[in-house]
Fold this sequence. Notes:
It is a single chain. The chain is α+β, with helices and mostly antiparallel strands and 146 residues long. The chain has 4 helices and 5 strands; from the N terminus they run βααβββαβα. It has helices at 13-26, 33-44, 97-111, 126-135, and strands at residues 4-7, 51-58, 61-71, 80-88, 117-119. A hairpin with an 8-residue loop joins β3 (61-71) and β4. It starts with a strand and ends in an 11-residue tail after the last helix. The relative contact order is 0.15. The mean pLDDT is 96.
Amino acid sequence: xxxxxxxxxxxxxxxxxxxxxxxxxxxxxxxxxxxxxxxxxxxxxxxxxxxxxxxxxxxxxxxxxxxxxxxxxxxxxxxxxxxxxxxxxxxxxxxxxxxxxxxxxxxxxxxxxxxxxxxxxxxxxxxxxxxxxxxxxxxxxxxxxx
Length: 146
């Protein structure tokens, strides 16, 4: 498979919306349309360096997306990269799309002096965890939220 992974652009709005809706459906989450518009605007705003996104295409078809948040960290001098959302379309799963998108995040982090990249997933997401176990290192931290 020859993937073209590039930064998300304004022309990707429709394809990105389909992919992100698929991602949110997987997590049984529904957001209002205005949140889609706001999120897309943030990820495509060239003035923002704290929110980045890439889209994966093959022969013009949108196959996956990845979103990251860059932020300061109290224990590190350099900012860190939080990989917030990763999604491969069902027809693209098992073809290396997720791994390629994570490698893109790693490359961006390395090129910009952010050696730490982290992400979360549900413990029952065994398909994604099989990839994550190959490409990252699991920690023993639990997530709590309000």
